[in-house]
Amino acid sequence: MESTTKIWGEYASTRADQVIQQLGSGEGANLTGVQITGDPKKGNKVSNVQQISPDTSIEIRGLAIFKKGKLKKWLDQDAARGATWINNELKKTVVDLNCEKKKKGIAVDIDRAKSKIKLDIKNNKPVFLITFRSEGHISEVHCPIDLSKHTTIEKLENQAEKEIKAEVMEA
Predict the structure, then answer these.
(1) Quick one: which of 134, 142, 149, 58 has its CA closest to 94?
(2) Which of 5, 20, 121, 141 is packed most tightly, with the most Cβ within 10 A?
(3) Which residues form the Spore germination GerAC-like C-terminal domain (predicted)?
């Protein structure tokens, strides 16, 4: 779980005492989902992990959003990562960008990410302004692209910005 959090940034690791405190105080809590596939009784046996294709497996998947002790929303994949962007819990991840001819042909490793939320009232309605700052580097390229040109880097930065914004808007 901790390595998934560090590498992909989709799911934040939360201790049980933190969850109890968050739910007990009435504030919201975000919990990572755990899905068991197969028979849980067979999964408890040592023979299950000794097989090439185990009868039972556990998958870390999704993010549950609780408010006042009740499940309010379930987020998967990009939407889950969008929530971690907003909550400033994302420190490291990989953002995939499209090339002209190949979908997700460029991988950008985000090494540092920081978010800030400001609340303003306009026309008696709350308006949230969320700002992000991130740093990263291009780790993989699977299409012909000239990375020595400044304009190419600017295009990739703009594309990464749009991708991050889309994830945040899904959340």
Answers:
(1) 134
(2) 5
(3) 62-170
As given in the structure block, the two tokens for residue 161 are 């910005």
Segment 122-145 shows an average pLDDT of 89
Domain ranges of the chain: 1-75, 77-171
CATH class of 77-171: alpha beta
Pairwise pLDDT comparison (2 vs 41), residue with the higher score: 41
Largest CA distance in the chain: 63
